[in-house]
Amino acid sequence: MLNKANQQQLKAVRSDRPLYHFSVPVGWLNDPNGLSFRDGKVHLFYQYYPYGPYWSYMHWGHAVSRDLTFWEDLPVALAPDMPYDAAGCFSGSAVNTDRGHALIYTGVSGELDEDGLPHGPQQQCLAFGDGITYAKSDQNPVIPSPQLPDGFLPQDFRDPKVWLEDGTYRMVVAATRPDGLGRVLAFESPDLISWERRGVLLENDGSFGTMWECPDLFMLDGTDVALVSVIAMPPGRDGIHPGNPVLAFTGAADFSLPGFTAGSIQQVDEGTDFYAPQTMVMPDGRRIMIAWMQNGFNRIAPPDQDWQGMMTYPRELSLEEGRLVQNPAREIESSWSDAVHLDDIVIEGEKELPGISGRALDLKIELRELQGALRITFAAGPASGVTLAFDPGSSCMTFDRTRAGGGSVSDALPVQSFRVPEGVRSLRILVDRNSLEVFINDGHRTFTGIFYAPNDADGIIFSADGRARLAVEKHAVTAPAV
Ligand code: FRU
């Protein structure tokens, strides 16, 4: 056990870690897994390699939170210690059952090759626990790869998302055929142990990259929403960035066919540092989503940093006119402090605003009038600055981390631009040391971007090419006293 002095020392040493976005003290983190509510707490499991800051044999790390903002670390829940998961316990989900807290994950057998990649079959596995300790089922794998439809590849069958509906457990899971295109398969089970294959629920016709990872499916305000995380999206499709976008299909899912009649397709987040989101339902009915704030092909953290990977702040989801709307979970308000309200601020040229600075903030900006581009530079210091700009002429929003400073490896898309054709009326920006989560126009569009700037650079500079008239509301986000 760490005593208080040790804890403070650890905090001092690791103050480069985000304050209120989940991260690991040491090692590597990727996808959120097993999001669920149990014993009054939200459980967040995650893809975890505890022995170094790089992806390798995957474990399931585990943390809990009562306020969705600050998290308590728990012991690792799953380690790759069985023949069927020796190459890794890959992503999956959790449900509460009368046999305990059930984790449904992908076991990857075999070993990682010289390049650190898995080649063994991927099969769906089960573990039960009490919220702290988990034991793998003797019946694993509960969906062995021979249960795949003919022609599907056993090496790409992963990321089961399970929920209980009308007394039946339903699963969506990622799979593919030799053409490499993503399919979302549907399975059903009365008990999580024996699973019946329903077939292909949703498939990539070739328009959206190759494999689709980490599917999720849920109903929001009467409409079904399917989320998929895309590999190798080519450039050129309007409104969807190349690389690894996350897509939301809205429409109607039918498990008995199975099939999904898509109404609209939307990119979930405009930034490249957003991948593998998973959702859960809170006891009050809100649908909450957390994503890995990075993606597998876009690693920019300084190589000597002993921790890697952060989660987004939990987002509340809703649908408005067929569009997925995301806003920070309202729980953040209980960690607000030092409020500053500035009404009717005029920016002409460059300006710092009284009381508006810091690296752990919830910042709300209303754009009342805008002639020419508006730029806001965060982490502003002698050698750093990360800029978010909106140009009403081109309707383009631009995130520029070229000057992040602090030894960041910024070669992965230092500048990202996207269009906001509807214009920007308001911005809400969660700033947390190494990241910005931007909620545009009350969450109708979001952008997530990470950077690694020196921690003491906490200036915020506004600048306008012409004239901007704003209202600004700032809240510091503050950790509870240890
Ligand atoms: C997505 C992903 C999943 C897989 C996991 C392995 O980032 O590739 O498909 O289960 O990461 O860590």
Task: Characterize the structure shown.
The protein has one helix at 4-13, and strands spanning 27-38, 41-49, 59-65, 72-78, 88-97, 100-108, 122-129, 134-136, 157-165, 168-176, 182-189, 196-203, 212-220, 223-230, 246-254, 259-267, 275-281, 287-292, 307-308, 315-320, 323-328, 336-351, 360-371, 374-381, 384-391, 396-400, 415-419, 426-432, 435-440, 445-450, 459-477. Helices cover 2% and strands 52% of the residues. Strands 22, 23, 24, 25, 26, 27, 28, 29, 30 and 31 form a ten-stranded antiparallel sheet that branches. Strands 4-3-2-1-19 form a five-stranded mixed sheet, with no helix packed on it. The protein has a four-stranded antiparallel sheet with strand order 5-6-7-8, with no helix packed on it. The chain has 482 residues and is mainly β. The protein is built from one helix and 31 strands. Residues 30-31, 47, 58, 90-91, 106, 158-159, 213-214, 275-276, 296 line the site of beta-D-fructofuranose.
